[in-house]
Design a protein that fits this description.
With about 400 residues, this protein is an alpha/beta fold. The chain has two domains: about 190 residues, Nucleotidyltransferase, domain 5 (2-Layer Sandwich), CATH 3.30.420; about 180 residues, 2-Layer Sandwich (Nucleotidyltransferase, domain 5). Helices cover about 35% and strands about 20% of the residues. It is built from 14 helices and twelve strands. It binds adenosine-5'-triphosphate and magnesium ion (MG). Magnesium ion binds next to β2. The site of magnesium ion (MG) has 6 residues, from β2.
Length: about 400
């Protein structure tokens, strides 16, 4: 079988830039193999990033502005797809996650809901999730000439799922082990885990996945706050490493409902964004924490929320944790995680042959490939969906130009 050359495009809740992965894919499930030919992160133009973050924070936007923002994001995604191919034979398919600007898990209607009430003759759907990604696949297909799969989350939401996390099935086929149980822990803006038992009978049915809570989102916002925007993140976690965590605050923050909610569950900047950080900063004032202490305390929240969720929601602790995403480069965070996980080995996915920086982009390339083969991409145990479904909407390209 010839490998299929696919581009995966992803920009997550950190809104730091577009991760582009050019991969060759063969096989379908346990024989699935992915070779990364090229991987690059293309930072957003500063103005566009600011606009996205403002919209994520709830700034009002007109329909005209929304359409413009959608197209502006699609254009930079299309440019990323074109750039990543330079020096390589062209890809036949793009899987583009787009940019999430809003995510609401199922059953989360606000009290001011304008939906028909239960007494209304119009049936009220069972509080479905809502997840909005901008960067239209139609525009990417048009600009690149390459068939583009986008809007991956809606098909899962249509069958009652959160539409997130969507990477667990890909993780399962690329990172499972015959004898070893593993947690694949992505630390993006939000953290998410895939638990994969050793590959014995019925292992697929025992895979679990959920969003663990904040990853880098609060840390990044705090760094921007303390540096007046001069820095966007704490490189290698060295600033946090010079501080001391305030444990009473970590305990207090861990009492947040989200951490106690059993999976399936998903979250976003709506919960762990600017408002949450402002609350944290207020709490820190009472303890007169220095900026370094604040960063250490927020890091501890990320780490403790990950470890607690394994202890509370997994049938057993994994034998190994494999980190990926930008947060896997935060050495302080990694050290703290290793310490709290005690006897569990912590590595990055790089150390088992899968790029930690581009794993999420690679996952969307695989999901697009599965879409074209008619293979389901979601894992109901992770998203809460009623059934497995093929993910993504197809936008046909008219040939490479
Ligand atoms: N060297 C580093 N040291 C510390 N933190 C880093 C480093 N490099 C990246 N990061 C962190 O990683 C973040 C970007 O990670 P990533 O792109 O995986 O997140 P994301 O865009 O939210 O993606 P996703 O939602 O797919 O997980 C940065 O905002 C920063 O906080
Ligand atoms: Mg990113």
């Amino acid at each position: 079988m010839h490998p299929t050359r696919v581009i995966g495009l992803m920009s997550g809740t950190s809104v730091d830039g577009i991760d582009a992965a050019l991969v060759e894919i063969v096989g379908t499930d346990l024989d699935l193999k992915v070779e990364l030919l090229a991987g690059e992160t293309y930072p957003y133009p500063a103005q566009l990033r600011e606009r996205i973050l403002a919209v994520c924070t709830g700034e009002a936007i007109s329909m005209t502005e929304l359409a413009e923002l959608d197209d502006a994001i699609a254009v930079v995604f299309a440019q990323a797809a074109q750039n990543i191919q330079i020096g390589h034979p062209p890809a036949v398919l793009i899987g583009s996650h787009g940019q999430t600007v809003y995510h609401r898990p199922p059953e989360f209607y606000s009290s001011t809901s304008i939906l028909p009430s239960k007494e209304s003759p119009v049936p009220n759907p069972q509080s479905p999730g809502y997840s909005l990604q901008l960067g239209r696949g139609a525009v990417i297909a048009r600009l690149t000439g390459i068939t583009t799969i986008s809007n991956f989350r809606v098909a899962d939401i249509a069958v009652g799922g959160h539409g997130a996390p969507l990477v667990p099935r890909v993780d399962a086929y690329l990172l499972s082990h015959p004898q070893e149980s593993r947690c694949i822990q992505n630390i993006g803006g939000i953290g998410n885990v895939t638990y994969i038992p050793a590959r014995h009978n019925h292992w697929l049915g025992q895979i679990r996945g959920w969003d663990t809570g904040p990853g880098n989102s609060l840390l990044d916002l705090a760094v921007q706050h303390f540096t007046n925007g001069a820095k966007s993140y704490d490189e290698n976690g060295s600033w946090a490493a010079s501080g001391t965590p305030c444990y009473p605050l970590v305990e207090k923050w861990l009492s947040h409902d989200y951490f106690h909610l059993p999976p399936p569950k998903s979250t976003g900047r709506e919960l762990f964004g600017l408002t949450y950080l402002q609350q944290c900063l207020q709490d820190c004032q009472a303890y007169q924490l220095t900026p370094a202490d604040v960063l250490a305390t927020i890091t501890e929240l990320t780490v403790a929320s990950i470890v607690d969720s394994y202890r509370n929601f997994l049938p057993q602790m994994p034998q190994r944790v494999l980190l990926c995403g930008g947060g896997s480069r935060n050495l302080y965070l990694k050290d703290r995680l290793e310490l709290l996980l005690k006897s569990v080995t912590v590595l990055t996915t790089d150390e088992v042959g899968l790029s930690a920086a581009f794993k999420e982009a690679i996952a969307f390339a695989v999901l697009a490939y599965w879409r074209q083969l008619g293979i389901p991409g979601n894992l109901p145990a992770a998203t809460g969906a009623d059934q497995e479904v093929v993910l993504g909407e197809v936008h046909h390209g008219i040939g490479n130009r």
